[in-house]
Amino acid sequence: MTNLHPTRHTGGAFIFINPQLTNYIVCIIIQTMEKIMNTNNTIVAISTPLSSGAISIVRMSGDDAINIADKVFVGKTGKTPSSFTPRMLTLGTFNAVDFKEQALCVVFKNPNSFTGEDMVEFQCHGGVLITKGILASCVKNGARLATAGEFTKRAFMNGKMALADAEGMMDMINAQSDAEIRAGFNLLSGELSKTAFKAQEELTDILAEIEVSFDYPEETIEYITKSNAKERLVDLYNKIEKVLASSSTGKMIRDGVNVVILGKPNVGKSSLLNALIKDEKAIVTPIAGTTRDIIEGTLSINGLRFNLYDTAGIHETDDQVEKIGVDKAKNTIASADIILFVKDSEEDTAEDLEIKNLLKDRKHIIIINKSDKTGNFSTEENTLRVSALENKNVDKLADKLYELASENKEMSGGLILANQRHIDALTRANGHLLDAISSMEAFSLDIVTIDINLAYSALGEITGNTTNEEILDAIFSKFCLGK
Amino acid sequence: MKHINPNSKYDAIVIGAGHAGCESALALARTNQKTAIITLDKNGVAFLACNPSIGGTAKGHLVCEIDALGGQMGINADKTTLQLRMLNMGKGPAVHSLRAQVDKHSYHDNMLETLLNQENLDFIEDEAIEILTDGNKVSGVKTKNGLTLEAKAVVVTVGVYLNSRTIIGEEINDSGPAGFKNAKGLTDSLASLGYEIRRFKTGTPPRLLSSSIDYSKFEAQKGDYHIQTFSFMTKRQNKNTHVCYLGYTTEKTKQIILDNLDRAPMYSGVITGTGPRYCPSIETKIVRFSDKDRHQVFLEPESARCNEIYLQGMSTSMPKDIQEQMTRSIDGLQNCKILRYGYAIEYDCINPLNIHPTLESKKIKGLFTAGQINGTSGYEEAGAQGILAGINASLYLRGKEQIILSRDSSYLGVLVDDLTVKGTIEPYRMMTSRAEYRLLLRQDNADARLTQIGRDVGLVNDERYSAFLKKMKNIQKIKELSKKFIKPNPELDKFLQNLGEAPAPNGISIENLAKRSKVEPLDIKRKLGIFKRFTNAEVTEALVEIKYAGYLSRQNQLIERERKLEEKKLPADFDYTTLKGLRTEAAQKLNEIKPLTIGEASRISGVNPADVTILIMSINRK
Predict the structure, then answer these.
(1) What is the pTM of this model?
(2) Which of A341, A383, B135, B543 has the greatest number of CB atoms lying within 10 Å of its CB?
(3) 8 Å CB contact of B358 and A9
(4) Which residues of B fall within a CB distance of 8 Å from A15?
(5) Which residue ranges form the domains of chain A, and what is each CATH number?
(6) With an 8 Å Cβ cutoff, are A14 and B312 in contact?
(7) What b-and-e string marks burial along A132-163, b requiring 16 or more CB atoms within 10 Å of the CB?
(8) Quick one: pLDDT band at residue B535, thresholds 50, 70, 90?
(9) CA quadruple B203, B205, B206, B210: dihedral sign
């Protein structure tokens, strides 16, 4: 028997089964909201363009914002932010993990703030490292990175903002971190959502043409043929695929950042890898990577996936056991996003120098393992000294990896999350399109519409169009129908 | 008809004996409720005021669903079929739709007879003019002839008769459809009970004298070779006795209409009611799609007993002289005689947002509405709501929980959910594209979806129920037997070869044969002689489920996922304007509709997911 869901009217308790489309989105919103509600309540984000501008602003919002500020900021007079006059700029010192920085701080007490919660803003000198350092210090002291549009969302949730008509769905689903939108950093998402809108428009047309043949089978209209539908779906699929593939950020988000570990045998590559995976910042994820290489491990740093590749074969360079094999290295690093060059000594052999030369124009970190003198990352030498076996300084490597990957503007902060959602939705939509295309031969059109509708609803997570009203409207505006 | 005591007491009264009213009254009487059905004119019972056919795309599904619940429409259509076609063959099982041309006189006669012979049902020819209430409960009905009938439940199924007027060019008649009397008193009564009154419009084409038509100019449209039935209970094999004909309007038709638009009530401002987009008049079609040179018309027999032909495709409210010119501009109709002119009809109806998905009023307990009064169009839509209203009125009278049909249970569930949650701004027609779980909601499994519900409410009798159980058992059997292997044989080779399917030199299991893309489920029985001892319906349902198992389970997964979200309930008496952060429009809509679950709220137009988020947050906080 097919599923039966008779539901009962119990004096005020109605149960309904939702149309799949809207609910999927609601589902996502619930998840997001539950995240917001249940996990760390205080959020932080960089609110200005991440560049070498004159000043940068980092802001925090939430119950703990002022407490956290107390731990990192001291005013010139020795007061901490909890005793600052609200909404007055105070000069002082920001004590970051790695540096001290003169900065301005302003405190907003709830409900008199943008979000309606306690908020703290730091205005510091511009520059990527300083700004990120301030951000990192806030995180270290208990804040968490804001998700896309989370400040706006909170403002909205706390009744500080009644969403204008134009907002709503689009904002919830499509929102970037509000700061980044202002900074004009949403190029990628802009492109992705534009793709989604266009793709959905085309799907609306295709669906309307298919649906009209079901609901009006006896009209004098040219009904869509399977081959025409297929052709248009293939076309659409290719367009989406192209957009997904052309964005390196998109690729990174979808497939992960490829990190190749280069080094002679016995320099401690695998202990480094293990230490990295064990590090609390690096969460090992069960997602399988691409199959083109042997992935030694997959880990997620701040929500971004990293695929760690060992340089398979290099350490088997026959008799030249002690050598890396420069030719092999050349080939290997070609496909890497980031290269970790692991050595166990401070000195460079001739071959090391040659390899360093190869890495010159690539994102890379030189790691001196088994080092006694671990310390901060040396920008000058592009070198980090760690002791993998003793698990010393490995956490810095995770930070550095993330920093390198997110140097790309598109990857910064909340945008990763926003993009991830877009890319995820587009990728799923394309999966459904592929299903539709491949079932076209074997199945009748009514079956094929199941997959097309799934693609439509996946795109709806970006565009907000999730009802079948659009399709009905398209039917009636396109065709002359009816008795 | 027996004499009615002017102060009679009933459990339930049904006002109106159209397609909704008949199903409501029968559902009530058959579940042992003492019921009266009031109609203006017994000749108007189950009258097919528009096209002489039952079913069609999505509507065929509704008829099968009415039947599965224990209703009458399918049985009646089967009894009076003149021609039958399964539409959308070749487009897949989800959209197969039965449509029968029926004899409209026999259809009416049969339904009237069914009502008159129904136990527990009194038939009253009168006009209901007021619905009586006691506090927030319905208490009876007052009629024009002075009856004051007591009843604890009232179902209003007045169709297009409320304050209706028909329009033919400059001629406006204070009348119901097809010259029947209209109903006047009830609109005020409904308005005073809290229903928002609206004005909708629909129309119908001219009827022609058959002998005045030159059929040689038309293309004959024959019925199906393999004829099927709507009702599970119909044993008789129907025959096609009549033919329909297809023709086209001409350049001249177009010109006549364009030249006379100033006399068209649709364009001269006479008609103000909202008409349906899917059922436009010929003048609307020509104006809106001016690039089309011609439009289809169908000649459909109205009855075996009369000479009347329905001219489908030519719905119009043009003046009579223009209607004559227009009609005669069609090839083969040059000398045709119009027996009855086409007309537009405007009528009062209510805003369906005023009713619960049980079809009960949100304000008055025991008061139900069904059919065109709820803003729908179509016999099938009306009949389906009628049976639901009848069932729920009966459950109400018996103090039991009323039924809400979910969107994944039936087209009826989709229809009622759309109406009561989204509302409608035009006469609502059922369409397959409105059902998101189409593959689960097939005609062939309507009984599997709904007969148990019909049984539980007492509407499915023992005979139907045992036949249903037998069918379900046989379907199970077929599914088991389908694992069997067919050894290679010439018959199988030929079968596959004819379809252009790859051969199966080592044989094939029935299951895998059914899954082959070009194999139609029923062909396995018809052409290979497998499962001969089972009925076509049984074989179809079993093999469709095997063939599409993957898709069906995916649809079920989606339903499961959404069901979890459906469990989030909202309070019935909450004032949404007090909820911080909610947009004014959303708050107003929510206050108007008072959804009882988050799911319902999420489907309300004007409530966007951001608003839904607020609702979720607010219930999470409670």
Answers:
(1) 0.74
(2) B543
(3) yes
(4) 404, 406, 566-567, 597
(5) 43-182 (3.30.1360.120), 187-248+416-478 (1.20.120.430), 256-408 (3.40.50.300)
(6) no
(7) bbbbbbbbebbbbbbbbbbbbbbbbbbebbeb
(8) very high
(9) negative
Chain A residue nearest residue B474, CA to CA:
A1
Domains along chain B with CATH numbers: 9-199+347-456 (3.50.50.60), 207-345 (2.40.30.260), 472-553 (1.10.10.1800), 567-621 (1.10.150.570)
**Highest averaged pLDDT of the listed ranges A207-221, A401-415, B85-99, B448-462:** B448-462
Would you call A213 and B91 a contact, using CB atoms and an 8 Å cutoff?
yes
Q: Which residue of A has its CA nearest to B448?
A: A1
Distance between CA atoms of residues A339 and A334, nearest Å: 10
CB B323 within 8 A of CB B171: no
| Distance from C-alpha of B510 to C-alpha of B507, rounded to nearest angstrom | 10
Interchain CB contact of B609 with A (< 8 Å): yes
Distance (Å) from the alpha carbon of B262 to chain A's nearest alpha carbon: 22
Taking Cα atoms as reference points, which of B121, B57, B62, B103 lies closest to residue B371?
B62
CB-based contact (8 Å) between B419 and chain A? no
Please answer whether residues A147 and A421 qualify as being in contact, where contact means their C-beta atoms are separated by less than 8 angstroms: no
| Tokens describing residue B156 | 């209003």
SS3 labels along B287-354: HHCCCCCCCEEEEEECCCCCCEEEEECCCCCCCHHHHHHHHHCCCCCCCCCEEECCEEEEEEEECHHH
Whether B439 contacts A447, CB under 8 Å: yes
Whether B368 and B141 have beta carbons less than 8 Å apart is answered as: no
Q: Give me the pLDDT at residue B340, please.
A: 96
What is the pLDDT averaged over residues A61-87? Answer: 93
Q: Which of A18, A157, A159 sits opposite B562 (nearest CB)?
A: A18
Q: For chain A, state the CA radius of gyration.
A: 27
Reading the block at residue A110, the tokens are 């709830």
pLDDT at B160 over 90: yes
Q: Which one of A10, A14, A449, A454 would you mutate to disrupt binding with B, by most B Cβ within 10 Å of its Cβ? A: A14
The closest alpha carbon to B550, from A455, A424, A451, A211, belongs to A451
Q: Do B517 and A23 touch (CB under 8 A)?
A: no
B579 touches chain A (CB under 8 A): no
Taking alpha carbons only, the member of B337, B371, B279 closest to residue B17 is: B371
